[in-house]
Amino acid sequence: MYILVTNDDGIDSAGIHALVQAMRRIGDVVVVAPDRQQSAVGHALTVASPLRATPFHRNGEVFGFAINGTPADCVKLGVSTLLDRRPDIVVSGINHGSNTSVNAIYSGTVSAATEGTLMGIPSMAVSLATFDHTADMSLAADVAYDVASRLLDLQLPAGTLLNVNVPPVAKADFKGLRITRQGHNEWKDAYDVRIDPQGRPYYWLTGEFVTVRELVDGDDAVVANGYAAITPIHYELTNFSILETLRSHPALSEICSREPNEGRS
Amino acid sequence: MYILVTNDDGIDSAGIHALVQAMRRIGDVVVVAPDRQQSAVGHALTVASPLRATPFHRNGEVFGFAINGTPADCVKLGVSTLLDRRPDIVVSGINHGSNTSVNAIYSGTVSAATEGTLMGIPSMAVSLATFDHTADMSLAADVAYDVASRLLDLQLPAGTLLNVNVPPVAKADFKGLRITRQGHNEWKDAYDVRIDPQGRPYYWLTGEFVTVRELVDGDDAVVANGYAAITPIHYELTNFSILETLRSHPALSEICSREPNEGRS
Q1: Which of A207, B14, B218, B223 is at 20 to 30 A from B184, Cα to Cα?
Q2: Residues 140..169 of A with a Cβ closer than 8 Å to B: which?
Q3: Separation of first and last alpha carbons in chain B
Q4: What ipTM was estimated for this complex?
Q5: In chain B, positions 175-214, which contact chain A (CB-CB < 8 Å)?
Q6: Which percentage of chain A shows pLDDT scores above 90?
Q7: Rounded Cα gap, residues A182 and A100, in angstroms
Q8: Of A40, A110, A42, A123, which Cα lies nearest the Cα of A79?
Q9: How far apart (Å, rounded) are the C-alpha atoms in residues B118 and B102?
Q10: What are the extents of the domains in chain B?
C-alpha cells in the first residue's frame, strides 16, 4: 500500500505526525501537506500564484513535502506531479477539531480527501472532536488505522469518501465505530466588534456550534455519545428531491417555457 | 424586497455591477463583497485574522461594503453585523466563469449563496459560462432578474439554494431556462513546472475541463446547448445510498461490532 497523507493544520502539527505513524503500519507513506495552518479554507485552490514544494524535516529525516498552498492543492500537486507513483489511498488528518455536520463544508481536511476522490483514489478524512491542541491523538490514530486498513476492501462508489470523526475520550471510554449521516448542527454566528487605536472597527468571527435538530444517527450525536462516526459523503450537490417540483412550479415554468427572447427586456 | 448582493470576483468587477443594476429593478440592494478577486476559494472563512468593512464608491456614490475576506465571510458578516435589517434574499455573482459540475465545490460564488441558505435566507448564485472578462453581462443579468424575482415564490426547502449558469450567447441565440442536475464534467489537472532564476522549481495549476459522462439534464450539457441551467443544490453531503451497505459490510462490521478496546492496539 502506498498512502498519501495530508492535512489542513500544517505539516508540523501533532495530528499529521500521529497519522503518519499509524499509516506506516499499513504501508509506504508519503506526506504532502500545507506549510502552515489552513483551517476553514474550504475547498480552496491556489490559482493566482505558483506553488512551491519544500522538503520538511522531522527528527533529522525528510518527513514530506511542505506546500505553500491549501490541502486540496497538496493532493492535486502531489498526485499529478510530485509523486513518482499513484497512491492507493489518500488519508487526511488528524484534524484538531470536529468536522461533523456543516463543518464538513468549511473543512480543509475533508476537502483534501474529496480531492483524492475526485482523482479516483479511495480517500478518507480523520478528525478529533476537540480544539485542545494538547489532546492525545492515539485513539484517533487507532481509528484511522482501523478504517484506512479496510478502505480498499470497502470498494466505495466513485465520488464517495469517508469522513471520520473521533470523540475526545480516553481509550477505556471509547465505545467503538458507527456508520452515520452528516448531522444537522449549525453555527450561530457572531462577530466580536472591536475598535482599533485609530477609532476604526474590525470584526473577529466567533460563534457557537448548536444542535438544531438532533439526528440519532447523525455524526455529532454519535460522537457525543463516545463513538467514532464514519460518514460516507460525496460531492453530488443536487437536491434531487425537488427537481420535479421545480420543473412544474408555476413561477418557474412561466420563464422556462417562454419562447426565446419573448418578453425579455 | 431587501437584497444582499455579493460575489467572488471582487466588488469592482463588471459582473457584480450588472447584477446590482438588475436587482435594483426588484428592490433595495445592499452590496457586501470581497475587496479583491477571490476565485476558487471554496467555502473558506477568515478565522485567524479580523475583517474590515470599507465603503466602496462607484460613480461618485457608495456602492457597498468592501471586505478583506472571502465571499462566505461577506455574507456572514453582512447579515449578522453590518446590515441593519435582515435581507429577504441573497444573490451572488455574476461570476466570470462557469460554476457547473464539480466547479460548484471550488466556487466562492456558490459558497456565498450557500452561506445565505445556512443563515435561513433564500439564496442563489449566478455565473456566466465564459472566462472572457469583456463578455456582455446583460443576458446573465436578465436571467438573474427572472429567477431572483421569483425566488421567494419557489419556497425552496431549508438548506437548498439555486445555482444558475448562463451560456455566453447573444440574446437572440438564447434558448431559455432549464431545471438541471449538477453535471459530471471534471478537471483533468496538470501543473506547469517552471524553474526560477535560482534553479528551483515552481508549479502553476493548469487543467482541462472535460466531459467524462454526459448527462442530458446536467448543467454543463444544458448550458452548452444555449440554455441557462438552474440547479437546486444543498449541503447535505451524506451518500445515503450506501449507508446500509456500509453498515453490513464485513470489513467494517468487524470493527463496528467489536467491543470497546477489544483487539485495539
Answers
A1: B14
A2: 142, 145-147, 150, 153-154, 156-157, 160, 163
A3: 60
A4: 0.93
A5: 175-179, 181-182, 186-187, 189-191, 193-194, 200-205
A6: 87
A7: 6
A8: A123
A9: 20
A10: 2-184+215-239
Q: Report the chain A residue with the minimal C-alpha distance to residue B177.
A: A256
Taking contacts as CB-CB distances below 8 angstroms, the residues of chain A near B222 are none
Pick A81's closest partner by Cβ from B182, B191, B264. B191
User: How far is the C-alpha of B180 from the C-alpha of B217, rounded, in Å?
Assistant: 5
pLDDT confidence tier of residue B258, bands split at 50, 70 and 90: low
* B210 contact residues in A (CB cutoff 8 A): none
Query: Measured between CB atoms, which of B80, B172, B178 is closest to A261?
Result: B172
> What pTM was computed for the model?
0.94
3-state secondary structure of B147: helix
Give B60's DSSP letter: T
Look up residue A122 and give its DSSP letter.
-
Phi, psi of B195 (to 5 degrees): -115, 130
Average pLDDT, chain B: 94
Contact A233 B256 (CB under 8 A): no
pLDDT digits (tens, 9 = 90+) for B35-79: 999 888 889 999 989 999 999 999 899 999 999 999 999 999 999
**Out of B44, B77, B232, whose CB is closest to A44?**
B44
Among A52, A145, A238, select the one facing B233 at the smallest CB separation: A238
CATH code for the structural domain at A2-183+214-238: 3.40.1210.10
Q: Return the closest-CA partner of residue B127 out of B169, B173, B89, B96.
A: B96
Return the beta strands (E) in chain B as ranges: 2-6, 28-34, 53-58, 61-67, 89-96, 123-128, 160-166, 177-179, 186-195, 201-210, 228-234
Residue B263 clears pLDDT 50, i.e. is over it: no
**Grid cell in block for residue B45:** 472563512
| Bond prior to B195 in cis (omega within 30° of 0) | no
Chains A and B: how many Cβ contacts under 8 Å? 261
CATH class as words, domain B2-184+215-239 = alpha beta
Q: pLDDT tens digits, residue range A41-85?
A: 889 999 989 999 999 999 899 999 999 999 999 999 999 999 999
